[in-house]
Design goal:
single chain, about 260 residues, mainly alpha, two-stranded antiparallel sheet, two-stranded parallel ribbon, 7 helices
Length: about 260
């Protein structure tokens, strides 16, 4: 499996170098067009012209807010294949996980006295939102939809363990069965932060070209929690540009092999 991972990584690097080159060409073309427009005295869309006597600032190229999905992962055949794979794996996985989920639910209820399930709206794809299920890890939170940091006082001992092992995400198998998520893909984000990151981080919106997943290429490389959002977006877009069913299998295997990452 290690050798397979290295082989897949080499293939991915070659594929994603090509995708990065295409992106660089797009940026260069946009800059050239914008420079030409500036010389002709055209104003950049959405920006007022400079005041009289003011020195013109640098020209900002106009680029699409979301890259069109032209990778194999976005073809109808690939999406059907990925969906079939999700069902093939998620159905038996949920059946196997049910006894563990039951035990964890009872333990959460005994420790916190609250419902074991926590539901929250997340962005799961392009212009798509869904209610995501998780096991409860907090006893209370003033603003879980717009607060990034989780206060330690709100986290239970069992909750901290669930978050470290990512077992709190097991109920999302139901979201996979309902077609709202995939087993592998960019992690779903809260709408407040998805909008903010999409505005501030280059390439973040491109993640929504593929449905959100329970685990992903960024996560198996340790990019979760308080880690770089820009790096997560870069890894997510690499995954989409170089997607294959074999890559999904490798990501799932690495997720199961290192549950505390």
């Amino acid at each position: 499996m290690i050798a397979a991972c290295h082989g897949q990584r080499a293939m991915r690097d070659g594929c994603c170098q090509s995708a990065a080159a295409e992106r660089d060409e797009l940026v260069a073309a946009g800059q050239a067009r914008s420079a030409a427009g500036a010389r002709a005295g055209l104003a950049i869309k959405g920006r007022a012209g400079p005041a009289a006597g003011a020195q013109a600032g640098p020209v900002v190229p106009e680029l699409p807010s979301r890259r069109p999905c032209a990778t194999p992962a976005c073809s109808p055949a690939a999406r059907r294949l990925k969906r079939g794979f999700d069902l093939l794996v998620a159905v038996p996985s949920l059946m196997i996980a049910l006894p563990l989920l039951t035990l964890l639910a009872v333990a959460i209820w005994l420790e916190s006295g609250q419902s074991p399930l926590f539901r929250q709206v997340r962005v799961v794809g392009e212009d798509r939102r869904a209610v995501i299920w998780k096991l409860r890890t907090l006893t209370g939170h003033d603003d879980p939809d717009t607060s990034w940091t989780v206060p330690a006082r709100h986290s239970t001992r069992l909750g901290r363990w669930l978050r470290v092992t990512h077992l709190d995400e097991l109920p999302q198998l139901v979201n996979v069965l309902r077609g709202e998520m995939s087993l592998v893909g960019p992690r779903p984000e809260r709408p407040h932060f998805a909008e903010r990151f999409g505005r501030d981080i280059d390439g973040y919106r491109d993640r929504t070209r593929m449905p959100a997943g329970m685990t992903g290429w960024a996560q198996v490389h340790g990019l979760h929690g308080d880690t770089s959002i820009a790096e997560r977006a870069r890894f997510d877009n690499q995954y989409i540009d170089c997607w294959s069913l074999w890559l999904d299998l490798i990501i799932l295997a690495r997720t199961l092999a290192a549950p505390t990452r």
